[in-house]
Amino acid sequence: MELYRQRWQIELAIKRLKSLLGLGHLPKKDPPSARAWLHGKLFVSLLVERVVEAANTFSPWGYELESAP
Q: Number of C-alpha atoms within 13 angstroms, CB side, residue 19?
């Protein structure tokens, strides 16, 4: 059951990438361009995750917020 839960989390992450970053359609035809395009999209997704994690504990008033569950 635990393996299924983990697999489902991976499925959800892929679905989120495809919808939010437009990974469902590859606009490039030649392999080097397609690889560069895909690497760029994956890099952006990693940056977005880091920004969201930082935003969860950021306080504009200068004090620490509790970590989100």
A: 6
Nearest to 68 by CA among 56, 60, 58: 56
Instruction: Give tens-digit pLDDT for 4-62.
Output: 999 999 898 888 777 777 777 778 788 999 889 888 888 988 888 888 877 777 777 77
Domain extent for 42:
25-69
| Alpha-carbon gap, residue 64 to 51, rounded angstroms | 17
pTM of the complete model: 0.58
Q: How far apart are CA 36 and CA 28, in angstroms?
A: 9
Domain presence at residue 66: yes
Q: What amino acid occupies position 18?
A: K
HSE, side-chain direction, 13 A CA sphere, residue 38: 11
